[in-house]
Amino acid sequence: TCSVAKKELDDLEQWKEEHRPGPIKLVPQRLGGKESEAQARQKQQMMLMQSKYQQKHKREEYVKAKKAAEEAEILKKKAIQREKAERLEGKKRQQEMQRREMFLEDQYYKTNELLNRLDLGLPKSDSCQIANSGPESTAWTRSHTYKQALQEDENRRLEEMKQEQRRKAELMEFKQKQEEEARTRAHQNEQRRVNNAFLDRLQNKMQPNSIYQPGYSG
């Protein structure tokens, strides 16, 4: 058995030796691309410039979108504040109208009560003071009371007008303050954009052959 196995191994080695592949012969060819090194570097530089331009364009689009979103948010807040101020103003006007109606109604009842007392005579504590008052005195008292009521109503309306003007001035000042804050924020955003562009240009000048990296946003 061992001799048979040995004979098979010898036959296998002999077969391998007979079928061993010979040397490979290839026709010499020029390897590498069709472009020269200068052309390859120029192409690489063009691709780098295109990449920088695309990234700069994307950054500008992002800044514009962010600025538009901030302005939309500012307008939204201003609209909400305006709506709140209008509701508050309407509520105040309604309260003023209610107070005015109540005041006029109360003044009407007081005036009627005073006129009725003058017609029927005052209580005993005041009867001695008007014991000798005649019809002319009573008419004068009515006229004086009516004029006094008109004067008080006029004074009250003037005071309401002053308060209304004061509220309008405060509201106008509040709106102007909001607009000034919005302009300040817009100016700061624009200044930040200019600074970022300047830093990008400065970095590109300092590192012309390096891979582009976005500038630091100060």
From TrEMBL:
<keyword id="KW-0175">Coiled coil</keyword>
<feature type="region of interest" description="Disordered">
    <location>
        <begin position="1"/>
        <end position="37"/>
    </location>
</feature>
<feature type="region of interest" description="Disordered">
    <location>
        <begin position="151"/>
        <end position="218"/>
    </location>
</feature>
<feature type="coiled-coil region">
    <location>
        <begin position="62"/>
        <end position="105"/>
    </location>
</feature>
<protein>
    <submittedName>
        <fullName>Epithelial-stromal interaction protein 1</fullName>
    </submittedName>
</protein>
<feature type="compositionally biased region" description="Basic and acidic residues">
    <location>
        <begin position="153"/>
        <end position="193"/>
    </location>
</feature>
<dbReference type="InterPro" id="IPR026185">
    <property type="entry name" value="EPSTI1"/>
</dbReference>
<feature type="compositionally biased region" description="Basic and acidic residues">
    <location>
        <begin position="1"/>
        <end position="21"/>
    </location>
</feature>
